[in-house]
Structure formats: structure tokens, C-alpha cells
Amino acid sequence: MLQINNLIAQIEDQTIINGLSLTINPGEVHAIMGPNGSGKSTLSKVLTGHPHYTVNGGSIQYDGQDLLEMDPEERAIAGIFLAFQYPVEIPGVNNESFIRMAYNAKRKARGESEVDAFDFAQLISEKLKLVEMDEEFLSRSVNQGFSGGEKKRNEILQMAVLEPKLAILDEIDSGLDIDALRIVAEAVNKLRTPDRSFAVITHYQRLLTYIVPDVVHIMVEGRIVRSGGRELALEVEERGYDWLTVAASAE
Amino acid sequence: MSQKLIEDITGREYQYGFTSDIESEAFPRGLSEDIVRMISAKKNEPEFMLEFRLKAYRHWLTLTQPVWPNVTYPDINFQNIQYYSAPKQVKKLNSLDEVDPELLRTFEKLGIPLSEQKKLANVAVDAIFDSVSVATTFKKKLFAAGVIFCPISEAVHEFPELVKKYLGSVVPHTDNYYAALNAAVFSDGSFVFVPKDTICPMELSTYFRINTEGSGQFERTLIVCEDNAHVSYLEGCTAPQFDTNQLHAAVVELVAHENAVIKYSTVQNWYAGDPKTGKGGIYNFVTKRGKCVGRKAKISWTQIETGSAITWKYPSCILIGDDSVGEFYSVALTNHRQQADTGTKMVHIGKGTRSTIISKGISAGKSNNTYRGLVQMNKSAHGAHNFTQCDSMLIGDRCSATTLPYIDVRNGTASVGHEASTLKVTEEQLFFFQQRGIRTEDAMATIINGFCQDVFKELPTEFAVEATQLLGLKLENSVG
């Protein structure tokens, strides 16, 4: 599904990703952990083609295609979804219309007919239950006036509608209270399928007690310094990142 | 914000920049009393019109060009402008079939079908090419309903009493520099008269086109609604692409009697000048004003301003009748090197008068967009109320937006509300759309549409779609 090979990427003049390799197979859940500034969020931006980041080396294969050759919207249509750490507000753009636009962009690219507002309303009201959101959220402007938790739930709602092949969740747990965390995590678990892969970026292993990963990676200074099972996250919680940071710089 | 992305989005060029190869009849450049007399003679005008013009011309000579607007341009040489230019027509036309086919093709190209078979659903059109009205559709049908809709040059002959009574009654020639100039040299425009208790059965519309290089367009529009009469009117404007600036100094006067409703909408897309150098383009210096003379009269201005090198206009309402209502809904978009200083004046005189101002300014490129508005509550305006909302949107970081609200309250029972906001379209927003599979062009159109909703919903339905597309085109990149 996704093969990242020796990736090097920078923003402005600063190299953030420095020789990162990672393979995610269909249906797998990978957790990516690491201290602040280790390049976790940058990885999510590079995967989705954010224009501020430049790739200087390495390759990314996605579903047999050269991902780096694709525009951001092509990547999205090909099934890559990013749940943003800080979802932006878009004043004046109705949330439901926005999600329908995204849904129809995908259908159009597949040569399917667009879904009208009426049919879409039925489709989305099903998905709303998944994130325990009120219908009222649909009629508001995208993320405007939403609390931190509501923004995150809105991201998951979009994911549920767009049914991606690879979902990248960038600190989906940050700023959530325990109830909101449970709702978000349960929604994600319900969206797990044998084909759908997840890259879950987080600081805290707490999220991983809800969303149980197949593999845990620790990222330090732009690359993965250690990979392991669920227990690696627990070890990090107990010991912090320092021992890994030291190990990384010793290499 | 990445300059490239913004430039791609905002870099689209003007579509209506072609010139039509039509023989025109024009006066020599320059302005003098003789030219004013020649214009009047050319139109076979009655004596009172010549007097009207001469008085204005003599007054104009005493005035100097205003310098207070927040725009910059080189001095205009008024002796280098052609004050009359008309498509050459050999004889009086009886039907559209006799109109120069090249002229008809021009209007087709602009998307304005004049032939009645291809007419817009239920919209009567008056087409003004350079200085004269070339075709007015549905005239007979409207006349049967009691509505007069004709070129003002025709009204001068056929309805001289009405013209005498109302022309200059809202915007006198002493009002300002360009209003005086217009009164002296205007050659045509539209005249609408809706008699008592009549609801105009269709949308009325005028399309303006300046074709000849170096000519000015000075049209004059006069709309009068008697008691309980209603009319909705739309004007559209385009011009070819020239390196020299063209002056458009129009005057629009609206008069609403008791309980009458006049809705005046503008979709302005004059040539804005070269996107890179700023050379050429229309100077759009227009005086538009409506007078609610009767009780409960209502005048509503809606404008979508997207073109012109410089836009400088303040469609205003003088609210004299008690409980009369004035509204101003505006979207002004500036891109590249365009400058706009636009807004409104709401002058409350009658008791219980109400006004609403919704202004949306969008600046992109290196443009400069100013909202300037006056809300004046006179001593007599007991219980009057105004609500103003001015929103600015910035696209990129080389443009600017300025809001200059003037509020003058002389009555303690009057109330005034003002809200303002500034919004920046960020690359993060556009990326958010892209990450959801939506192209940047569609994203931009959606954001702008959302921003302008409050104004678009005031446009006649047929034109709301057109306006949305126009704004989209103005900001879109032509290559996907």
C-alpha cells in the first residue's frame, strides 16, 4: 500500500525528514510517536503534498504509483486522507456542502454521477451517529466556532464519508477530554477494515489503548529509530524519549 | 503565502477585450460649448435640453477635479477625449433585423442576446454601444403594461414633461465635477417610468459597451416609480482592451414615490487595464443616487464591481419619506493593479427611515480596495435606524483593504450599528480543500461565494449565477 524509502524533506532551509523509511500494508494500523520537532507532522504534510515542503531525496510508492508525482487533490482522490492536527476554519462555507463537494469530487474522478443535496443528507446523517455529532454541525460554517473536540470529530466525520484507503491521523487526541477521546477512537475503530490502513501520529500512548496498533514506530530527528509492537509505546511512556534520542545521535 | 499559488489563482485575463470592427461616427476630441451644442443638435433636442446642458457645462468650467478619493492616477486631459461616438446607422431602424450584424455579433459574444427568439427569460434589454442606445427589446409589451422603457434620447422627444420634471432632480449638475460633465455631454442612457399601482412585469436590463478607443461614455439613466409601483433593473458593462484609459462618467437617478420599490443591480466588468503593467483600463467615475420621496418607499442598490482600472462610486439613498427604506449590497473585487474607492451614502431625513449596508470587499494581487460610507441621521429623522456591515477579504499579501465609515447623527432617537471584519484567504485553507480532493479553483470560488452570500442573494435569480461565475473567472487560473 505505502512504501517510503529513505525520504529526505525540508521546509524553507531546514531538513526535517532525514532518511525515513516506512512500509504500511493494507489493513494495518501504524502508530508514529516521537518527541516534539521529530518530524511527525511534517511526514503527514509531505505524504499529502503540502506546498511548503520540498522533497530532496528518496521515494514514496502508494498503491503502485509514484506519490511524489501527484498533486495534493490527486492524492486525496486516490484515497489518502489526513485528519489535521489543527483543522482550519472556513467562514461562509457550509459544512455539509463542503463535505458533499469533497465526496462528489471523488465520485466525479471515478466517473460516477454526483450525489444531490437530498441523497447526501441521508448519507451523512448515518455517519453523524458514528461521531455522535448533532445535525446542527452540518449547517454551520466549516469548523467555525467549533471547540477543539468538535473540530476533531468533524475530521473523523469527513473520513467516514470519504472512505479513504490510507488515513493519517495527526494528533487526533490532542486537546480532547476523555469522553471526546473515546468517541473519536471508537469511530476510528468502526472504520477499520481489512483494506484500510492507518497512520496514527500521537504523543501519548493513551490513544493506543483505544486504537490498538499493529506496529509502533518511534521517530527522532527525522527518521524512525525504533519499531516494535504495542509494548514499545508503553516503554516510551515509562522511560520517555531520551534513551532513544541518545541512541539515535550515537548512530 | 506562496506567491506562485496566489498568482496562478489570480492571474486570469480579461475575456471581453476584443474590439468590434464597426464604423462609427464621432466628433473631434475635446470639449467646448460648440461640442455641447453639436451633441444637442445631433440629437435634435428641444430647447430645454440644450439649456440644461449649457448650464451644466458652464458650471463645470468653474470646478476642479476632486482629489479626496483613496486612488491615484495621472491627470485626465479632458481635451483629449471624444465626447460623442456612435455606430454609423444610415436610417432609422424598425426592427432588430436591421441592426448591423457585426453589432449583434458583438453583443452575442458578450453573452447578451438581443434577438427576441434568444432572449433571456423575461428580461427586457436596452443595449448601449459607445454613446447611443442601439436596441431596446420588449418595448411594446412593456408599454402595453403601462411601463415606459426606452433610450433617454427618445424620452426627451416623446415624454418631454417627465424628463423635464425629473432629470437632474436627484443629481443636480452642481453636485460634483463628473455629474456636471455628464449633464453637459451625456448622449444616451435608459429611461424607465412605472406609473401608479403598476408592477413592472419583467426584469429590465441595460448593457453598456465602450468600443471606440479614446471615447468617453457618459450615459444617463433615469428611473421613476410612481405610488405603489415596482421595478427591478440591472445594468451590465464591458469594454475592449486598450492601452489608453477610457473615462466612464455616468449618472443614475432614481425616484421612488409612496410605497414604490426600485431595485437597481449592477454587474460591472469594464476592462481593468493590463494585469502586469496596469496600463489602460476604464476609469469608472459614476454618480448614482436614489431619492425616496414618498412614505414607505424603498430603494435597493446591489452592485458587483469586478472591473475598471479605477472604480469610484457611491450609490446612495436620500430617505425623505417617513418609514422609507434604503439598502446597499455590494461586492467589490480588485485584482492586479486595480483600485476601488466605493461605498454608499444613506441620508436619513424622514421619521422611522431605515437603511442597511452590506459591503464585501475582496482584494487580490497588488490591488487596493477602499470602502467609504456615510450614514447621516438628520435632526428630523426620529427613530431612524441604520445597520452597516463591512467585510474585507484579502487574497495574498500584496493587496490592501481600507474601511472608512463616516457616521453623522443629529437625532438622539436614531440608532446606528456598525460591524466590520477582515478575512484572509490562507494557503492552509486552500490546502484543506485540496486534501479533500477539491481543486484550488473550485475552493476559491466556494470561499468567495460563501463570503458574498449576503449580497448574491439580493441579485435577481437570473444574474446571481452569472455573478458567481464572473467572480470565479476573475480569480481563476485558466489552465486547470
Structural class of chain A: alpha/beta
Strand content of chain A: 25-35%
Number of strands of chain A: 12
Number of strands of chain B: 23
Distance between the termini of chain B: 20 Å
Walk me through the topology.
The complex is a heterodimer of chains A (251) and B (480).
Chain A (H helix, E strand, L loop, with lengths): L1 E10 L2 E11 L4 E5 L6 H9 L4 E10 L2 E2 L5 H6 L2 E4 L6 E5 H15 L7 H14 L5 H4 L1 E2 L5 H15 L3 E5 L7 H13 L6 E5 L4 H5 L4 E6 L2 E6 L1 H10 L2 H9 L1
Parallel strand pairs in A: 3-10, 3-11, 6-9, 9-10
Antiparallel strand pairs in A: 1-2, 1-4, 4-5, 7-8, 11-12
Helix pairs in contact in A: 6-7
Chain B lengths: L2 H8 L13 E3 L6 H10 L4 H15 L23 E3 L13 H9 L13 E7 L2 E5 L2 H6 L3 E4 H7 L1 H7 L10 H9 L4 E5 L8 E7 L10 E6 L4 E9 L6 E4 L2 E6 L4 E8 L12 E12 L5 E8 L4 E4 L2 E4 L5 E10 L4 E10 L5 E10 L4 E10 L7 E11 L4 E10 L5 E11 L1 H9 L4 H17 L4 H15 L5
Parallel strand pairs in B: 3-7, 6-8, 7-9, 8-11, 9-12, 10-13, 11-13, 12-14, 13-15, 13-16, 14-17, 15-18, 16-18, 17-19, 18-20, 19-21, 20-22, 21-23
Antiparallel strand pairs in B: 1-2, 3-4, 5-6
Helix pairs in contact in B: 2-3, 3-8, 6-7, 10-11
Can you give keywords for this protein?
heterodimer, A: 251 residues, 10 helices, globular, B: 480 residues, alpha/beta, 11-stranded mixed β-sheet
Description:
The complex is a heterodimer of chains A (251) and B (480). With 251 residues, chain A is an alpha/beta fold. Chain A has helices at 40-48, 72-77, 95-109, 117-130, 136-139, 148-162, 178-190, 206-210, 230-239, 242-250; strands at 2-11, 14-24, 29-33, 53-62, 65-66, 80-83, 90-94, 141-142, 166-170, 197-201, 215-220, 223-228. Chain A has a six-stranded mixed beta sheet with strand order 6-9-10-3-11-12, sandwiched between helices. A four-stranded antiparallel beta sheet of chain A has the order 2-1-4-5. The longest helix of chain A has 15 residues, at 95-109. Chain A is globular. The mean pLDDT of chain A is 93. By secondary structure, chain B is of the alpha/beta class. Helix content of chain B is 23%, strand content 35%. Chain B is built from eleven helices and 23 strands. In chain B, strands 5, 6, 8, 10, 11, 13, 15, 16, 18, 20 and 22 form an eleven-stranded mixed beta sheet that branches. Chain B has a ten-stranded mixed beta sheet with strand order 4-3-7-9-12-14-17-19-21-23. In chain B, helix 10 runs antiparallel to helix 11 (461-475). Residues 90-94 and 115-122 of chain B have low confidence and may be disordered. Classes of the chains: A alpha/beta (251), B alpha/beta (480). The A-B interface holds A 48-52, 71-73, 76-77, 81-82, 84, 87-88, 90-94, 97-98, 101-102, 105-106, 109, 141, 158, 162 and B 2, 5, 423, 426-429, 431-432, 434-440, 442, 446-447, 449-451, 453.
